[in-house]
Design brief:
Elements (H helix, E strand, L loop, with lengths): L5 E9 L5 H16 L11 H4 L2 H12 L6 E4 L4 H8 L4 E4 L19 E4 L3 H11 L14 E5 H5 L3 H12 L3 E5 L16 H10 L25 E7 L6 H8 L5 E6 L6 H12 L3 E5 L5 H12 L5 E4 L4 E3 L2 H10 L14 E3 L5 E2 L4 E3 L4 H10 L6 H10 L5 H18 L4 H4 L2 H12 L8 H13 L3 H15 L5 H14 L4 H17 L5 H13 L5 H13 L6 H13 L5 H8 L3 H5 L3 H13 L5 H13 L6 H13 L5 H11 L8 H13 L16 H13 L6 H13 L5 H15 L5 H13 L5 H14 L1 H4 L3 H14 L4 H11 L5 H5 L7 H16 L3 H14 L5 H13 L3 H14 L3 H18 L2 H13 L5 H10 L18 H4 L1 E3 L5 E3 L6 H13 L5 H15 L9 H13 L4 E5 L5 H10 L5 E6 L2 H14 L5 E5 L2 H11 L5 E6 L3 H13 L3 E10 L1 H5 L1 H10 L2 E10 L2 E13 ...
Parallel strand pairs: 2-3, 2-5, 3-4, 7-8, 7-10, 8-9, 17-18, 17-20, 18-19, 20-21, 22-24
Antiparallel strand pairs: 1-5, 1-6, 10-14, 11-12, 12-13, 15-16, 21-23, 22-23, 25-26
Helix pairs in contact: 1-5, 8-19, 9-10, 13-15, 14-15, 14-17, 15-18, 18-19, 18-20, 19-20, 19-21, 20-21, 20-22, 22-23, 22-24, 24-27, 27-29, 28-30, 29-30, 29-31, 31-32, 31-33, 32-34, 33-35, 34-36, 35-38, 38-41, 41-42, 41-43, 43-44, 44-45, 45-46, 45-53, 46-47, 49-50, 49-53, 50-52, 51-52, 54-55, 55-57
């Protein structure tokens, strides 16, 4: 008989039931066997078996308990079977079905102690349990002692699965189980030395680990050796914590040490030299960079040379025990060549405390073939084809070379960037995979080799064995591991991008083991493991926080890659670890300068993803980015730009460098990178600041490049790419016909069905924002929305509001979509319920409501808009000024006086201060009296009396009604001046200093309070002086055309001469409108004033009523672009004599052109623009003073109550007969760009602090930029007359055709 590789297991406490006939037969044979005295002393047991560790373990176990019962032998008879019989043990051999048992004397020992059965193992075990049960009449005193399994059984194709299944089915019969074993090879073949414990012990739920022993695996002569003894060979890096113990443990066993340090920074080298000197121990220390495990390990063995016969390789966390016995082993087997050898003594892992019987002891004299083959494979000149040829010509491989071949092929593919299929579909690759599967090689690789191979196979997307390797690794980890094994395996799973059951099981086991040993993790292991879990989206927040805690403890040891991977991992799963992020945010400038491209890209991306701001970190990183931008790839450029924009940190120099590098011809940008770059530029804050306002950086050249590049690769765009790209162009108001046609074709072609609601609504919004009326696109989208259901679109209210707004702007009203929208918006649990889930309504919800209300009116769904208002009113919600403004616009558009009063009443009920409530209630009463509804006016005034809200204007209105009782109290609503820190500035969650939203209208209510207290009823000059006095005394800036600007308006009225109609865009509190109307009423003129803020409109109605000018001033509430068409509908052509713009400067030219297109300006009209220098109206000034049909002069003056800041007020005479009047408006790109910058500082003034010095600097810059664009109007300076009043002398109209 041929000795076979074998393993031994002991099973205790069997239970179950079996067949009666089989039980009786087995019981009978066991009794005969127990009484048999036959020995097998004449059986020839080879010396290899006699001296094997297997026999030693059996002898020790059986000798300690000689009364133990039979041994169950699963497998063909072997020399070990014979040995057991010779030791007078009863052996039950379990054969396979259909296989005949040995019958002749040569193969079968003649003894009753050997029982051959062919029944299934489960039945055998069940029957044995019954025999050793509680029934006295059937009890056999000696229970079964061992279950003996041959390794060959488990290495055959399919055998492992079958055996595992069998044992799993038997497992419920075992109340307790202890597992131990050995595996031997007499013919020099490598044996899967850990397969049984790693595969079967978990199946059996064994509590203890298997101790495995394997003889030296290398066979060959010792020729070429120049010395004997044992050399310790190590690869180390940052092992200072335990390296001293490791060295001291091998002093009595090893003759010398060869240590390769791959970059320690913790003093490991000094400790090594110190121990060598103190112990007089020969130690050779080499320092070289780490390449990969196989290459660096082979380099260490090469450095060891031929001076020692044996090599012991340990890790820095391992300690040898029983060194003296190892010394005796080395001495005894010196010069040994071939055959199997007894195993060496164990080493102990210092972290886990576990002992192992598999020390990596290597005997020099490795087979020449193996060494030569390894050198062939690791040659740097190899190509993929070279390596595959080596594979085909040198089969079979030993385990190390097999792992090396697989790993090298994966690295070559990555380095050469060739398709996976070049390797995985090659028959020679299949040879390697077949050897892994068939020979059980995967079971015997050390964990580090297994991790390397797992990574290699994963990186090649080789799905055929990835799951197998992950499954094996998960079972091995259950037996113990070190941090490097855990991190390497996690890294392999991440590389595979696997999310199947095997990958999930492996990561769960990695998580369990990592939690136990996290304190032993080095920085690299922490970072790799964290990165891997985040990469596959396995959100193990507890584990990542443990990693982050440990990283903080070892922060000084972290390098740039460790830092970036850790924060990237936290950001990817949206977990904020405050202490670690804070530490990273304060990273020193020199550390940042040492970060590689991927590292600082990941850091800023992570901070932005977690919405964490760090002015210091981002400013320091910007310097690094600019310095090495040319080395960044397109993804890094896009990620960095995205990160800076995400937190609204705009550095114009940084963004310029990023854009110009991205535009380099040799670069190729993917759709994702193009979309992210465009989004970043559109979302950036204003220059040099961090803000929540996304002003954007308008770079026409850059956006033209983005558009051109996107058109070329349009078919590759995903839904999100399309959405982000067109959103960016729309936000920057940059139209590009070819781009939007390409994106439209992409959407309508195959992409529209793949759009999620947010992407679809963003695309529609973008087209509408740029007034691109692509009805084909909108019709296709309508079909898709109706097909999916409006509920699908309205999963978030913003998607629905954006979509409705877009259809309203382009005036597209597909009948089926309109019907679906009406049904959803009026449903019981529809849009409104989702929008108002959080109360009070936030800024975003109020904006979405406002968009929806206006758009419904545009889509002829006005009744639905009022349905929403009724719901808001019923619930007593504060809908926000924008929504109220839109409802007032609709009421004015439809002349629905009742609804207008309803809106003002809702504003009064939900106002945040008593002063604002009183102003709104007074506005309700004024409008009721105007419409002739005295009954409602009386009710309002009575309510104000009950709420103690009556003020002097309320009393005037009460007296007008006549029959109301006197109010219980009349007086002003209390108002006091607040310090700025009380009402103007707050700090938001990002740490930005912001102005409070207009919820109190503090200054405007104070102005009204001052008017009613100090301004005489119906005395306009006194009222104006009260407003000016309030501003002066309280040192509060108000957006008024007062003082010098008021003098300009007076002069314009005089120049025009009895103007019949003044249209004002920007009412505010009513100062300029009452100033002009008080003069115009004498000749029957009137003022139409447009105001977008409904609370300003309500306060102005109080001012106008107190001035007695309600009959001469008409207030239209809403956005000017929506109100201007009403002029056309309600007024005759050429009826506007004076057009006064006191609004956002970058909208003035658009509104002016709308009015001109409607032919509403009279032949002698004068156009006045306020604040055209500060913040500025570049497009308006260019058209009025350079290219358009106007004759313009400006008055250079100081902004009202800000004596330092210069501003301009423009006065333009309309020249309808000039050639320019027949030309379309065209604004140069540089002027548009200047307008964009103007909006930036305007928004900054709204949300942040802008000093007078900053304003003055801006004004001077605008002067220079205006001049560069040709804007050099005639300037007029105001002066003061003898009474100290401001005066201005305007230049008369010079145009020859002027008839006025």
């Amino acid at each position: 008989m041929v000795p076979r590789c074998s393993a031994i297991f002991s099973l205790l406490a069997l239970c179950g039931s079996g067949s009666d006939s089989f039980r009786q037969e087995l019981q009978s044979k066991l009794k005969l066997a127990k009484d048999a005295d036959t020995s097998l002393d004449n059986v020839d047991v080879p010396l290899a078996v006699e001296a094997s560790r297997c026999s030693q373990l059996l002898r020790a176990k059986l000798g300690a308990a000689p009364s133990l019962g039979p041994v169950i032998d699963m497998g063909a008879p072997s020399m070990v079977t014979a040995w057991l019989l010779r030791e007078k043990k009863v052996v039950i051999s379990v054969g396979e079905e259909g296989r005949s048992r040995p019958a002749d004397a040569a193969t079968r020992p003649r003894t009753r102690r050997w029982i051959w059965v062919t029944q299934p193992l489960e039945l055998l075990l069940t029957t044995l349990r019954e025999l050793f049960g509680d029934r006295e009449e059937s009890r056999i005193r000696e229970p079964p002692s061992l279950l003996f399994i041959e390794a060959d059984q488990l290495l055959q194709r399919g055998a492992l699965q079958r055996t595992s299944h069998t044992l799993r089915s038997v497992r419920p019969l075992l109340s307790d189980l202890a597992v131990s074993g050995v595996m031997l090879s007499d013919d020099g073949k490598e044996v899967p030395h850990w397969m049984l414990p790693s595969v079967l012990a978990p199946v059996l739920d064994a509590k203890n680990k298997m101790n495995i022993e394997l003889p030296c695996w290398t066979i060959g002569c010792t020729s070429g050796l120049t010395g004997g003894g044992l050399a310790l060979v190590m690869i180390v890096k940052n092992e200072a914590r335990l390296i001293r113990q490791t060295l001291q443990s091998v002093l009595e066993a090893a003759d010398r040490a060869v240590i390769l340090d791959t970059g320690s920074t913790d003093g490991t080298q000094e400790i090594l030299r110190e121990v060598s000197q103190q112990q007089n121990f020969p130690l050779e220390l080499y320092e070289e960079p780490f390449v990969d495990f196989a290459t660096t390990r082979n380099r260490a063995l090469q450095l060891a040379g031929q001076s020692s016969e044996f090599v012991l390789m340990l890790s820095g966390d391992e300690t040898l025990v029983h060194g003296a016995q190892l010394r005796r082993f080395v001495t005894q087997h010196s010069g040994y060549c071939g055959g199997s050898m007894p195993p060496v003594m164990p080493y102990v892992n210092q972290f886990t405390g576990d002992a192992s019987f598999y020390p990596p002891l290597r005997k020099k004299g490795r087979s020449e073939r193996s060494v030569t083959l390894h050198r062939l494979m690791v040659s740097p000149e190899n190509s993929i084809e070279d390596l595959l040829r080596i594979v085909s010509e040198n089969r079979p491989f030993d385990t190390d070379n097999l792992a090396t071949a697989i790993h090298k092929l994966a690295k070559l593919r990555r380095n050469q960037n060739v398709p996976y299929e070049v390797i995985t579909e090659d028959p020679r690759w299949m040879m390697l995979i077949q050897q892994v599967v068939e020979n059980g090689t995967a079971f015997i690789w050390p964990m580090r080799l297994l991790a390397l191979v797992a990574w290699a196979v994963a990186s090649l997307r080789e799905r055929r064995i990835t799951a197998l390797l992950f499954d094996i690794a998960a079972k091995r980890l259950a037996l113990g591991s070190v941090p490097q094994d855990l991190s390497s395996l996690a890294w392999a799973v991440a590389t595979a991008r696997a999310k199947d059951a095997a990958a999930a099981a492996l990561l769960r086991q990695v998580s369990i083991e990592s939690t136990k040993t996290v304190q032993s993790f080095g920085p690299q292991d922490l970072a790799m493991c964290a990165w891997a879990f985040a990469k596959v989206s396995m959100r193990d927040a507890r584990l990542l926080h443990l990693f982050a805690d440990e990283a903080l403890e070892k922060y000084a040891e972290l390098n740039g890659q460790n830092l970036s991977n850790l924060v990237w991992s936290l950001a990817t799963i949206r977990e904020n670890h405050e202490p670690l992020m804070h530490a990273v945010s304060r990273t020193r400038a020199e550390t940042i300068q040492g970060l590689a491209q991927q590292e600082f890209s990941n850091v800023v991306w992570s901070f932005a993803s977690l919405l964490r701001t760090s002015e210091m970190l981002f400013r320091r990183t910007a310097v690094r980015v600019v310095g090495m931008a040319a080395q960044l790839d397109s993804q890094h450029l896009a990620n960095i730009a995205w990160a800076y924009a995400k937190i609204s940190h705009r550095d114009d120099g940084l963004f310029y460098v990023l854009s110009r590098e991205a535009m380099e011809p040799e670069r190729k940008c993917s759709p994702l990178n193009l979309a992210n770059l465009a989004w970043a530029f559109a979302s950036a804050g204003w220059h040099g600041e961090m803000s929540t306002r996304r002003v954007g950086l308008r770079d026409p050249k850059f956006f033209e490049w983005v558009a051109t590049s996107a058109v070329q690769i349009a078919p590759q765009f995903t839904s999100q790419n399309c959405s982000n790209l067109v959103w960016a162009f729309a936000t920057m108001r940059i139209g590009h016909q070819e781009l939007f046609e390409a994106m439209s074709n992409q959407v309508q072609g195959w992409l529209i069905s793949n759009f999620d609601p947010q992407h679809l609504s963003n695309v529609l919004w973008s087209y509408a924002k740029l007034a691109i009326k692509n009805l084909e696109l909108f019709d296709s989208a309508a079909d898709e929305i109706v097909k999916r259901g409006v509920e699908y679109l309205a999963r978030t209210p913003q998607n629905l509001s954006n979509t409705v707004w877009a259809y309203g702007v382009v005036a597209s009203t597909p009948r089926h979509l309109m019907s679906a929208l009406e049904h959803h918006l009026t449903a019981v649990r529809g849009f409104y319920e989702k929008l108002t889930e959080v109360r009070p309504l936030g800024k975003s919800s109020r904006a979405q409501l406002a968009m929806t209300v206006l758009s419904l009116h545009r889509l002829n769904l006005t009744s639905v808009a009022w349905h929403l208002f009724d719901q808001v009113s019923r619930d007593g919600l504060q809908a926000g000024g924008e929504a109220y403004s839109n409802w007032l616009f609709i009421a004015g558009e439809t002349r629905n006086h009742r609804r207008e009063v309803d809106v003002f009443e809702q504003m009064a009920r939900t106002a945040h201060t008593r002063g604002l409530q009183a102003a709104c209630w007074n506005a309700v009463a004024v409008r009721c009296l105007t419409f002739g509804d005295e009954g409602r006016a009386k009710s309002v005034l009575q309510l104000m009396d009950r709420e103690d809200l009556c003020n002097p204007l309320s009393e005037v209105l009460r007296k007008r009604l006549g029959d109301l009782p006197a109010p219980s109290s009349v007086g002003n609503i209390d108002w006091r001046r607040r310090e700025k820190d009380e009402h103007e500035w707050v700090t938001n969650s990002l740490g930005f200093s912001l102005r409070l939203n207009k919820i109190e209208y503090y200054k405007e209510v104070g102005t009204l309070h001052y008017i009613l207290s100090h301004g005489k009823y119906q005395d306009v000059p006194v009222i104006h002086r009260a407003i000016e006095a309030f501003t002066r005394e309280q040192e509060l800036w108000l957006k008024l055309a007062g003082d010098e600007k008021g003098a300009v308006l007076d002069k314009v009225l005089a120049l025009q001469g009895k103007a019949k109609l003044v249209v004002e865009v920007g009412l505010y509190v009513g100062y300029s409108s009452t100033r002009m109307a008080s003069q115009m009423r004498h000749w029957g003129g009137r003022v139409i004033s447009m105001e977008v803020d409904p609370y300003h409109a309500a306060i102005a109605r109080n001012t106008i009523e107190w001035a007695g000018l309600t009959d001469y001033i008409e207030i239209w509430c809403g956005h000017s672009e929506n109100l201007i068409p009403r002029l056309k509908e309600r007024l005759p052509e050429k009826s506007i004599d004076i057009l006064f713009f006191d609004q956002q400067g970058t909208k003035m030219h658009l509104d002016l052109q709308r009015i001109v297109d409607f032919n509403m300006l009279s032949e002698t009209a004068i156009v006045v623009g306020d604040n055209v220098l500060r913040p500025g109206a570049p497009q308006f000034m260019y058209w009025n003073s350079v290219a358009g049909p106007y004759e313009t002069q400006v008055v250079s003056l100081r902004e009202y109550k800000q004596e330092v800041v210069e501003d301009w007020m423009s006065i333009s005479f309309w020249l309808p007969q000039s050639p320019e009047a027949r030309m379309p408006m065209r604004i140069p790109e540089e002027v548009e760009q200047l307008g964009h910058d103007t909006d930036g500082i305007r928004w900054q003034s709204v949300e942040s602090k802008v000093s007078e010095q900053q304003w003055e600097s801006h004004s001077q810059r605008m002067r220079r930029e205006f001049a560069a664009c040709g804007i050099k109007p005639f300037e007029v300076l105001p002066y003061q007359d003898a009474q100290g009043r401001s005066q201005v002398d305007l230049r008369p109209k010079l145009y020859a055709g002027y008839a006025g």
